[in-house]
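Appendix B, example 12.
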Amino acid sequence: MTAIKSDQAELAEIEEITDDISDISWMDSPVIVIFVILIGLVAAQFFTRYVLNDSLAWTEEVSRYFLVLLCFVGAITCVRKGSHIYLEFFYLFLPRWMIKPVAVSAEVITASFFGWLGVLGLELAYKTKAQYMASVPLPKSLIYYTVTASCFLMALFAFIRIIQILRRDAGSVAAEKLDNFG
């Protein structure tokens, strides 16, 4: 009987978390647009392949590129919210005063990584500006420029998170990092 109650409590908690969309911002609209377009592309691909038995050749490639865009543009939202995955349990083993410097260091590494990816993305986009997609007459560099812009935006939001963490006291940073563990 107690197992059923705990399962119901867990389900109620999950529903409470998934029903709250108050943290969605206008900055998330590109992700939603890309996702809706991707749904349409995959639906068109499925319909033409399995219903009409005559698949559109370009939908597979374009869907693949939109999935890449969804990944990188969606990652901007994750960095902005600070919801990228990380080893949360590691904070349990640190003294409370040490959590803030570790959190700042992690964000510095993250911002540096995304900035470096942006630089590499610029090089790749420049090198592929003359290459075109196989089924659509568009340059591949469009995808690489979008990924590069996403990486630079992720670096910017990671830098903003560094500033936010530095402005807070160590106790509130520790409380935020440890709140998942009760």
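The CA atoms of residues 9 and 65 lie 40 Å apart. DSSP finds six helices and no strands in the chain.
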